Amino acid sequence: MNFKIAVPPPFSFLSTVYSHGWVDLPPFQLNSEEQYFDYTFSPDENSIISFRISGGDNSSLLVQTEGKLTAAAGKKTEHAVICMFRLNEDYSSFYRLARAEKKWKWIISYSAGRMLRCASLWEDMVKMLCTTNCTWNLTKIMTGNLVAELGKEKGSKHSFPAPEIIAGCDEQYLRQRIKMGYRAPYLLEFADRVASGKIDLNQLENREGTSDELYKALRAIKGFGDYSVSSLLKLLGFYDRMGYDSWNRIQFAKKHNSGTAVEDKEIAAYYKRYDSWAGLFFWMDVTEHWYKNNFKW
DNA sequence: GCGTCCAGGTCTACC
DNA sequence: GGTAGACCTGGACGC
Fold this sequence. Notes:
Strand content: 5-15%
CATH class of the largest domain: Alpha Beta
């Protein structure tokens, strides 16, 4: 079954797919040659949906599934795609700022700025936890193990495991087999609180509130510090925080200070004029070379 | 092949 | 409020 989803301009499939590392982590399966990715998700405990998505002419997304979807499953797939590609977000003031300065001309020409999400905040948050205090390779190992060992299975494909599944795991298993290491108790506690309803991710995601309020709510969850919460806020449509990590600090230093380390407050001062978009301009600035190198990471 | 050291965020205890 | 140390793993390095 094939169907199209209209996208609001400016939009670029590739710029969104390569906006950060998510597409490199299962259950995303990228085919860079043919410019599509496969993705599998479980919208509820009884179902599992796999689809292939490509960008066509950047005026719509083409979604392909094996076999026909029920109307309800089609709706859930469409909702997931809208969330993943941030199709409901208004980027007009971001592009207005980008158009005003010559150095951001490339953002306009690549229609860059949208950051790819997973189908659920749960999956985004667990993956973000897996990026903390380790190399990207270890992040891939952790998420790969979670999906392969605990995900719901459909043929050769697996979805990201539900909170209930992880909440039922033994801590030693998560530490040693999944390679979560010392993060295991954080993941276990988070999964348990989500599965038991003590943390309502839907409410968290759809709450009316400020960036600061959401920041405080997410920081209250053990294991999620400044870097991970600031990065998560970017996936939730709040771009005022920088989300420093060792990699983006180095990229900034290389680009703006001949490689000499720069204090966080100086980085913040550099992007201050972009106000609520400061964090996104920071991320765009340190990843500019990805776009110009045709997304060769 | 083995042992050692280091990088990578977050939490906790302490000042 | 700021700082130091512990947490765990993979990879780099020296032997």
